[in-house]
Structure formats: C-alpha cells, structure tokens
Amino acid sequence: MEKKPKEARTPLAGFASINEDLVQNILKRTPASSFASAACVCKSWNQTCNQILSKPKLASAFSLNPDQKVASQEVVNKVLSEPIRPQFAIANVIGSGVDLSETLNFLAAKLGSKTPIIVSCANGIIGRDAVTDEHQEVMLEDFWADAASKNSGFGVLLTVGFLPGLQVEAIPLLRPRKAASRMALVDKFVMDIRNYAAYVSGSTSPALVIMFGGEKAEQKPVMEKLDHAMSRETFIAGDERAQFLYKSGIESRNVHGSGNEYISDAVVLVFARDRHRASDVGEIQFHSALSSGVSTIGPRYKVVSVKEIQPETDLTTCLKARREGEQEILGGQRIIDDINNELVNKTELFIGVSKQRQCVIGSENPKLLRSLAFHEVKGGDGEHLFVSGDGIGSGDYFHFYHSDSKAALSATSNVSKNFRNLKLDWSSSQLHAGGVGSKEVVGGLVFSCWGRGESFFGHSNVDSSPFLDNFPGIPMAGIFCYGEVGRGFTMLNADDHEDQEEKTSCCCLHVYSTIYVLVSYTPAPLKH
Questions:
Q1: What start and end residues bound the annotated signal peptide (predicted)?
Q2: CATH for 294-403 (2.40.30, 2.60.40, 1.10.3470, 1.10.287)
C-alpha cells in the first residue's frame, strides 16, 4: 500500500487545534504565575491574556492560620489562583501581636511596588476561607476566645481588585510630630484628594473613597471637610478608627516608622474615573446602601452650654440641656434616667446632634452644612450630661438614639430588597437589549459596626445577607469597624421622633450600622 506523504498525514496537534474561546476559558482559570508564563508563549496567546486581564475583577479570601507568614501566603495563593492585574489591595488583620509592616512588605513583594496597599487592624472580618471556601463572619472577641486555648491567634483578609476605567491611589493625611494646625493639614489632605481626582478624571470629586482613620485621631472634622468638598455622587466608606499602614503607588507619599517626622492620621484609597480610558473599556458603577442599627427615643433637647475636657483616654464634652420648648435646665443623670425608663431593655445610648456650620477649605467661599453627628453617652451628674468627642455648640439640638437589633434587622432586610430590585432591573434591561452590554456584578464590600454580628442579632451572617441572598458566589469582603464611615448613603430609617432637619441632615460617621458597596460593570458597546 502506498504511504501518504508525511506532511499530508500530520494532524494539527496540541493547542494549535483549540479555538480561541476554549484557549481563553483555560487560561483564565490558571494561577497568576502560570498565566504570566502563558502570555509569553506566542502572539495570539499574549493577546488572549491581555483580553482576560482587561476585565474587571475583585478577589478576596481570609485565613485564620495562627502563623502569620502561613496565613499571608494562603490568602495570596487564593487571590492569585486566577489571573488578575492588581490595581489596589486591602489587607485586614485580627489577633494580638500582629506585625503590620511584615504583612505590608510581603504583599508589596507579591503584588508589585506600584500597587497601592492598605493594611489595617479590624474588629472582625467577613469573607470566604482561603482553604475551605466557607463564608464566615469572624468577630474578634470570639476569635480571641478560641485562640486563647491555642496560645496564639492571627487572621488576615486580603482583597485585591482591578476596575478598568478607574485609577486608584492611596493618599494619607499626614501630621508632623511637632505642633501644627490640624485644620490646615486636613485642608491639604482634602485638596490632595481633589487634585488627584481632577488630574485623573477632570473632576475634583472621585467616584469612591475608602477611608481608614487613625486610632487616636478625631475624624469628624475630616469628614465635614470631605462632605463639603465632594459632590453628592462621591461615595465614602471605611473604618473610622484603626491601626494601619499603607503603601502608595507614588513613593513620595510613603511615610512610615517611628523615626519619621510625620504621623499618618488617616489614609484613603481614591477611585477616580480615567478620562483617557480607551473606547472599548466599559463603565464601573458603585451602588451603596446603609442598614441603620439605632432608633430614636425620648423628646428633643437643646444644648444650653458646653465644656470640653481632655482626660488621659478620650475627649469628653460636658453639656447642659433642656427639653425643646421648656425653660428648665435638666441634670444629666435625670435625663438619662428618663430615657432608660422608656427603654424595654437597657442598650447603648448615643445622642445625635443636629448641626449647622459654616465650612470652608483654604481660600474658598464658606458653605453652610447641615449634619448629624453621633456622640456616645458616657454618664451624667446633677448638672451635666457627659458624651464622647467634641464639636457640640450651644444652641444645637439633639435626640437620644439607642442600639436596636430589631430596627437593624428590618433595615438589613430593606437593603436586601433594594439589591433584589436592582438585580431585577438589570435582568429586565438585558432582555430588552438582547444581552448586549449586559451588566456584570464584580463584587461587594461591607463595613459593619463591631457591636453587630451574631451576638447582636442572635444568629450569624445577618450583615452579609444582602449579598449572600441576592448575589451568591460573588467576591465579597468586609470588616467589623470601630466606627463605620459612610457618606452618600440613605440616612436613618424614618421615625416619628425625627424632625425634618434630622432626616435631611448628612451623616458620615455612623453607629451600630452597616455600609454596603456593590460594584458592577457594564461592557462597552460592540463596534460594528
């Protein structure tokens, strides 16, 4: 029998016979290190790899391995188990004796020197286990109790993201160790954010700001300035008080160590829309919601006088007050007793102070701002009511608020319904458009009060439920904060005790609440 010529019977072999879609499907499931090697195989593979890397991605995982190095390696391995182009990273750690600089340096080596990174201590973490993929809300006190039996404890949650069409940078609020005007420094901090946003997007208001405030720095004046400076379209979320370290993509902004002349009072990740983005890049959108966990109780009061004292631990305001419409000045303990008599169960008390203040940045024209600020009630005597923080003035009005798990559960259910309606709207729009430009859910972020969680609600994963119920399986990362930052979100639940001024006041620093940020992406229309 005559043999066929060799070249005629040599079949297409290996990947040469696989179509482009299948190659992309295989490559996007390879670990980041193998993916980098695959990009060098040939020109067509390199183009496919670039297409994969150009898509939005949020990757997150946590590890509770008591060995800090092992835990850090586990979360990095999980987050980089699929291709991603790291644009920013946030690591939140829990435990005792944590070395933040070790985690920061490890992540910088793994993710690249130009990637903005923030590492912070949290009061709890929310996400999926890097090993088991099980979703958990891990509260710090429960973690410590469990770790005590093992004589060690460490946990880390790592979130890495790439959001095409946006640029991201870490910008710190720096304070010299020597005396300086803090208001001038806050002004500079706000201007640094605005200047970066303007340089990137042409607008001084970024799309999103994620903030971590220092443990000992008062953030109310910072948030007032940011609220004044940003348009209503700018969302701000984060943790009011935390130990943190950061690494900016711009080396001159990196100030660390006790030997430096500056202290970092806060740091933000600024997400600004790129005005030079390519025409084939779609649009990232942020969708926000707030679940409030407090309710008003008792009448409205008017502040008669204030006196601020600075003990060793916390700034305290002593104030005298009277009920609205009455002339008698009431003792602080009497006011507290009256409020407690109305409560069925004793809970934490706060006052929500309605303020109207002139706010100005640098040489700009002043602007009248109306805000609602919470202050924890610390006690009272025959004359004064003692509350945490400062910034309260004579003539301000306030209501009492108390932590309320039923209100929080109802508010969380409303957030879940709103997300469900959002998902239905997207599905309807996609049907009408024939699937063209279909919106994709990239992931979600959660910033919840450390007082919530299982002990507050009586069962677990309540704060995660709006995402778990509506977008199961999406990358989600969250923390329990000591003061949750949320600007640009729906205000408190409607309450008969609240007046119109409180309902319309902007509140940026919340108590017993949870802040949600959902990230979506709409691909650019196909070119014909």
A1: none
A2: 2.40.30
